[in-house]
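User: Sorry, what's this?
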Amino acid sequence: MRLGKISDSVLKRSVLKQIKAKRQEVINGAGIGEDCAIFAPSDGSASAVSQAAVLEEADMVRVLVKCANNLATAGVCPAAVLLTLLLPAEAEEQLLKRLMAAAENTCNMLGMQIAGGHTAVSRHVDCPMACVTAYGVPMHSADLLAAQDAAVEALTKGKRTGGESPMFTTRGAKPGQDIVLTKWIALEGTAILARRCRQQLLERYPAHLVEEAAGFDRYLSIIPEAAVAVKSGIRVMHDASEGGILAALWELAESSGVGLTIDLRKIPIRQETVEVCEFCGVNPYILASSGCLALAADHGEELVGQLSREHIPAAVIGRITDSHDRLIYNEDEKRYLDKPAQDEIYKYIE
């Protein structure tokens, strides 16, 4: 199989179809584009759990931010993490100390506590690997709490028929809604490439451009924009991560069973990303894009204004449609959105 996230067809065939056992407390479970499991026990409480792993290298910032972002798109506030670290046999204790310090610094920035985990050394790994399970609790928002109360009440009265969630899921986008995108695409991939190719890039570009691109990690959290969205009554959010913005848009449409039209020229992208991706020969639209949040909004421009007032860049890039066509327009050119492809970061690594 290809490196990275498995394809949708393999996921459906070999993972999702094998999951048959169900419990009433699990309101939202495994599915295309679903990055959180949401639980609502009969006592009326609600919580969410997300998991992420970084297998190429134990990049603690990336893996922890990814988990926190997944929780934020479900309308919950990241609270605690369980951290698993697997180290190669030749690793020294100083490496473990550095990884844990990086994890603690990142968790402190995100408002999370490291609540436990597991650390082991194995001859079967050749570089440090990290896996995180994060736990979240509802954000403090009247809109969110009202939605949670209604869903929990329906659940406890035995009225759960359509998979109602006391939080939010990728499902639920409706025809006629605008698609809003926050910040810029390919931030995560740009930062990785800029750091790995720093010396080569410095031979072509000014140092300020290379250093700015390498520092894009500071934009990776989508918690601030998710909080604005919750307060604005948004119910459908999906963070763009592995596979880039095109994968995120496909998953958003596939999960909701809708179509979409996208104006490629309106998708926000930093000039540093353009330069780094051209140098490395990768497609920024299929490049790891943590830090970029896609939202389905009834009034997209109004949401863009609300985000702008919180100093969060955003743009309306398209609309949800009632067909199953997923179309991308680039001036007079029209093409169909393909199923998610392998992230371009693996193309570069290979």
Q: What stands out?
A: The domain at 8-153 is CATH 3.30.1330.10 (60s Ribosomal Protein L30; Chain: A;). The CA atoms of residues 70 and 268 lie 21 Å apart. Confidence is low (pLDDT under 50) at residues 141-166.
